Amino acid sequence: MAVVLQVDFPYAGPWGEAMHAQMADLAVSIAGEPGLIWKIWTEQPDSNQAGGIYLFQDQASAQAYLDMHRARLAGFGVPQVNAKLFQVNRPLSLIDRAPL
User: Fold this and answer.
1) CATH number assigned to the domain comprising residue 55
2) How many C-beta atoms surround the C-beta of residue 79 within 10 A?
3) How far apart are CA 60 and CA 42, in angstroms?
4) Does residue 100 fall inside a structural domain?
5) Does residue 27 belong to any structural domain of this protein?
6) pLDDT 10s digit of each residue in the chain, 100 long?
7) What DSSP character marks residue 76?
8) What pTM does this model have?
9) Is 64 exposed, middle or buried (0-12, 13-18, 19+ CB in 10 A)?
């Protein structure tokens, strides 16, 4: 069953195009993560937060990525990572045009 991972954390920037320029290699790396179907990058400059919404093929892939991502962010000096895992209700999501 597909699993959504929602992550956010404190982030001081850069934002927008500057973030794209700085993070493009990381995005390519994330695209190769086992079980990842897609990621939406999120940013909120007004509150200094960034993160992402991910869709994984299964719970094990999502949890493995979350464990690795928390360690990576800790290495970048990010003090706290908020995360939630949700199972996807596919039939209802398809009605509402989810990209599954």
Assistant:
1) 3.30.70.100
2) 8
3) 23
4) no
5) yes
6) 999 999 999 999 999 999 999 999 999 999 999 999 999 999 999 999 999 999 999 999 999 999 999 999 999 899 899 999 999 999 999 999 998 8
7) T
8) 0.92
9) middle
